[in-house]
Amino acid sequence: MLFFVLLSSRHTFEGSTVILPDLTKTAPPLAGAGADVIDALLEERMLGRDMLAGYAGLHGLGAADDDFARWEIVAVERQFTRPVRNPESARASQYWDHSGVIDLAFRKKSDGTLWLLDHKTAAPSRWSDIHNCLLMDRQVSGYWAAAREALGEMPQGFLYNVLLKRPAPRAPRIVAAKSKADACPCGRDLLRDKAGKVKAHALSRATNQGTTGPLYRAAIAEHGLDPLAYADVLAALDLDPPLRYDRVALSRTPDEVAEWERDFYETSREMRTARPAMHVSALVCPRCEFLPLCLPGGDTPEARSNYRVSEVAHDELDDESQEPRPGHEVLSNSRHACWRQCPRKHHLRYVDRLRPLSEHRALRFGVGIHEALALWYESEGTLDLAGAWDVWWAAEYERLTGGKPGERDIPVPF
Predict the structure, then answer these.
(1) pLDDT at residue 266 is higher than 50
(2) DSSP 8-state assignment for residue 298
(3) Do residues 192 and 176 lie in contact, with contact meaning Cβ atoms separated by under 8 Å?
(4) Which of 42, 165, 223, 320 is 20 to 30 A removed from 266 (C-alpha atoms)?
């Protein structure tokens, strides 16, 4: 497992000042990173560049789906704090304030309606499950309610912009021909056996190799092959091209928002008095970062030495939002969801403020993608999106390895 940290700093990139976020609360730096860490970072950099370059090509200035031509950006990373109120009497709670961050708010130029947007990264293999979860995401109602006070009006809709962790499409792989009928007639020196003899080659027929129908057709022409011999592969690629990006549009009725407000308030009362009991789940517990502490006899000083104590309860909020009013605690959408999932997990994360020493790689990758997109939308598409990722990634590299990327790695724009 790897350790991650990113210090707040400034870098100049193509004439723009890029301010990197303060993420020093996430984990201590890793000293003496080895070759495996560097290889993982370099692979991560190329994947992030591919994902963001493709996203900019799809939604950037001049694209067919140009967000900036269709939208007016209203707010980026807008933090909010509002009282948790009794839905019956409208009285503010004596103990809790609702705080969080609205990632992006925009107004459609076509009809003037307000929309909220959040970005998600996901593994392609899990997208169908995640898609259904997003449709049912109750936290959307929380942002809906917050927007009414933070932005002065109720939104018309909510968008989840999803970036799947899939590199840019590439040409089909070259493999050894299984027979003379499969062999490419071009005779090019592309494969050799152990003795150094040129081997007959063919195009891989796998449909999950990250290629597309147009790229496969181009390779067929380049190697002088008969397209009819690959009709089944082409049909499969055309029918189900590799998905890289998706948008999920959601809406909430006033009754649904009111129901969420009632649940949020009742949960806040329950959290003041209920015992932090453990909710055992065969689906959730095996993936929980606190599982070692929940096993019988597992919560020992030795086991807790694998965790650190965070300075704050909410890593996603700035210091000013951690205690908005004296005597009040922050109840964020994430904290509310954590309590609903497991009060024991909530206690370990938000009361004891424990964080694993080794954080999940996917979480750190998602933070970098999120920060680059926030900078890009704030610049209204004028900042090079892949370049903003490079700056974030280079600072991450420096914290993990103790040095800046050099010529033997991949130069970055410093």
Answers:
(1) yes
(2) -
(3) no
(4) 320
Structure token digits, residue 411:
């130069």
| Residue 199 CA: distances (Å) to CA of 39, 93, 187, 224, 321 | 31, 75, 9, 17, 65
Q: What is the distance of C-alpha 359 from the center of its chain?
A: 14
Predicted confidence band of residue 18 (pLDDT cuts 50, 70, 90): very low
Using CA atoms, how far apart are residues 69 and 90, in angstroms rounded to an integer? 40
Q: Which amino acid is at 223?
A: H
Binning the chain into helix, strand and coil, the percentages to the nearest 5 are 40, 20, 40
Separation between Cα atoms, residue 329 and residue 58, nearest integer Å: 41
Is the Cβ–Cβ distance between 92 and 265 less than 8 Å? no
Can you give the three-state secondary structure of 73-121, one letter per residue?
A: EEEEEEEEEEEEECCCCCCEEEEEEEEEEEEEEEEECCCCCEEEEEEEE
* pTM (predicted TM-score): 0.78
CB crowding 295-320: b at 16 or more within 10 Å, else e = eeeeeeeeebeebbebeebbebbeee
**Are 143 and 159 spatial neighbours (Cβ–Cβ below 8 Å)?**
no
Q: 104 or 200: whose pLDDT is higher?
A: 104
200 has pLDDT over 60 = yes
Cα gap 313→329, rounded to integer Å: 10
Residue 321, H or E segment = none
pLDDT at 407 over 70: no
The pLDDT of residue 323: 63
pLDDT of residue 181: 73
